[in-house]
Amino acid sequence: MKILEKFEQLEKNKEKALIAYVCAGDPDADTTKEIVSSLVRGGADIVELGLPFSDPVADGPTIQAASQRALDAGMNPDRYFELIASMDAGVPLVCMTYYNLIYKRGLDKFASDCAGSGISGIIVPDLPAEEADDLHAACRKHGIDLIFLITPVTNGDRIEKILDRTSGFVYIVSRLGVTGTRVDVAQSTREILSRVHTEVPKAVGFGISDREQAAEIIAAGADAVIVGSAFVNIVASADNVSERVESLARELKSACK
Amino acid sequence: MKRSMYGRYGGQFVPEVLMPALNELEEAYERYRDDPRFLEELAYYMKEFAGRETPLYFARNLSKKYGTKIYLKREDLVHGGAHKLNNTIGQALLAKYMGKKRLIAETGAGQHGTATAMVGANMGFDTEVYMGAKDVQRQHMNVYRMQLMGTVVHSVQSGSKTLKDAINEALRDWVTNVENTHYLIGSVVGPHPYPMIVRDFQSVIGNEVKRQIIEKEGRYPDSIVACAGGGSNAMGIFHPFIENREVKLFPVEAGGCGLKSTKKEALHSASLCAGEDGILQGAHTRVLQDRYGQILESSSVSAGLDYSGVGPELAHLADIGRIKPCNVNDEEALEAFYELSRTEGIIPALESSHAIAYVMKMAQSGELGDLVVVSLSGRGDKDLETVFSLKKKENRRVCL
């Protein structure tokens, strides 16, 4: 399913989107499949599946540790696309990874593998808009959305440049810093949302971990909330993962209705 | 070619949150690089604080033994014991002009961290340095030096616990504190404009050599040899000679235990000799990586060369044949460490020992010509414990 179709469907139902992130292969590929099913049962509308990289500079310790667990368990791009192809998630899947893995595989092949396996969009946190022309062309050729980030320090000119290139949704970073759960997101989110004017859905991430925060973000005008570290923490605990992931997804989704 | 590129290398591959900071840094550098007040202050610090200019020393005994004229550019005599201060003075001054209050840096051997701690203390910055836990252990006197000067040293526990991981952590700090913090990168690596800025501040080395060698020999050298991890001393001494094509330029990489790799680790740090095209820590360059693009951990007896990437300009110069990348292994570097200490009474850093080792190895081949300049990028005091612990082993081989 395409990302925009999902947003259109949600709009008809007067709902906002819950986008959930987990790292593919953490702790292993089979468990990832179960986790994705649980996320979708709990109400996740889009699932971001991290393709782990050895040096994830935009991520905090939680997701870095998840990436390392996945790499240690043998996850690699070949297995990642096999895993995606074997899923029937029923919601759009987005690949989040770092540029060297894409560059090494070849931009066209990477985009083609995404399309072939069932990935709808790509997020590359170390690829700013200025460096993305070639990947943008490859994604367009294969019908894949390339999703860019906007942060609290992104100025007006850059916002325009980013919005020109982004499709699917635009990823709005609610505060400075790397990924990880924190509490002070509402104010900075209101401020940044007021500066981003676009028809593309606005998804806010970084620092959201519970229903109350998700509700604040939605009330501030976001079309979606993105939650990563809170789910990854549950996976890391290895304790009753599927049930707890489903339960957190349900709680967060209730703020999006 | 884009301004930020060297051939196909370079660029700015960083999280979006850092792009405004990189643009701000580039604008500030363009504004102040020719500003008389900035240049006057820079010259003052270089002379009075760093102790420039450094001598171009004729290594008489070494020359006699190896049958070629060998000059040593004595960056080991810069305050702090390495060339690193050239760049930290320049960048810290720039940060001061930009109104930043806080400096962060990464360090491998501790020399760049120490140099950052020095300028941080001297110019009144809050200073924090990230250092891999493995390097903290093998360079703990440098850690203490930094702490003495009021710098907070973070021991990085992730990944290979060396320079690459220290850079990752410094980048994360910068992402979080970008509004008041200048990230003082220590080598010609990372996103544009860093490779250019660091190269320019380090070019003082090559510019001095140009004048000094004419004074002493009436001509340019046949070759210049410098060790290369990230490559800041190499670019610093090479850059003023790039247009002088008769001067051969040799960056010597850490061959470690030989140019082999395992599944997760390279047994060397030779990115120019054995790396592949890739994107690492903000730049497109040559990188030690596996078939999927995962970054391999590097290895070297020398903490300062123990890095999985290399400066993008060096990668470009290698591509076009202007520099000739080479490498020596750990054992050869250790031999050179002893040799220079005994023949000249100068204890070189293990990094610089790689450059000396290449000269020792190639002097008879005719490859280097009759007049060689070696960048003695740092002094070896910081490495004494490493060498001592290796010597205690009956067999001095590092790679067993």
Automatic annotation (TrEMBL), chain A:
One of its GO terms (cellular component) is cytosol. The keyword 4Fe-4S does not apply. InterPro entries: Aldolase_TIM (IPR013785), RibuloseP-bd_barrel (IPR011060), Trp_synthase_alpha_AS (IPR018204), Trp_synthase_suA (IPR002028). It catalyses: (1S,2R)-1-C-(indol-3-yl)glycerol 3-phosphate + L-serine = D-glyceraldehyde 3-phosphate + L-tryptophan + H2O. The active site is at E48 (proton acceptor), D59 (proton acceptor). Keywords: Amino-acid biosynthesis, Aromatic amino acid biosynthesis, Lyase, Tryptophan biosynthesis. HAMAP family: Trp_synth_alpha. Belongs to the TrpA family. Tetramer of two alpha and two beta chains. This is Tryptophan synthase alpha chain. It comes from Methanolobus chelungpuianus. The gene is trpA.
TrEMBL record, chain B:
The modification N6-(pyridoxal phosphate)lysine is found at K84. Gene3D superfamilies: 3.40.50.1100. Residues 50-378 form the Tryptophan synthase beta chain-like PALP domain. InterPro entries: Trp_synth_b_CS, Trp_synth_beta, Trp_synth_beta/beta-like, TrpB-like_PALP, TrpB-like_PALP_sf. One of its GO terms (cellular component) is cytoplasm. It catalyses: (1S,2R)-1-C-(indol-3-yl)glycerol 3-phosphate + L-serine = D-glyceraldehyde 3-phosphate + L-tryptophan + H2O. Pathway: Amino-acid biosynthesis; L-tryptophan biosynthesis; L-tryptophan from chorismate: step 5/5. Its cofactor is pyridoxal 5'-phosphate. It holds the Pfam family PALP. The keyword Lyase applies. Keywords: Amino-acid biosynthesis, Aromatic amino acid biosynthesis, Lyase, Pyridoxal phosphate, Tryptophan biosynthesis. One of its GO terms (molecular function) is tryptophan synthase activity. The keyword S-adenosyl-L-methionine does not apply. PROSITE patterns: TRP_SYNTHASE_BETA. Its EC number is 4.2.1.20. The beta subunit is responsible for the synthesis of L-tryptophan from indole and L-serine. Belongs to the TrpB family. Tetramer of two alpha and two beta chains. This is Tryptophan synthase beta chain. It comes from Methanolobus chelungpuianus.
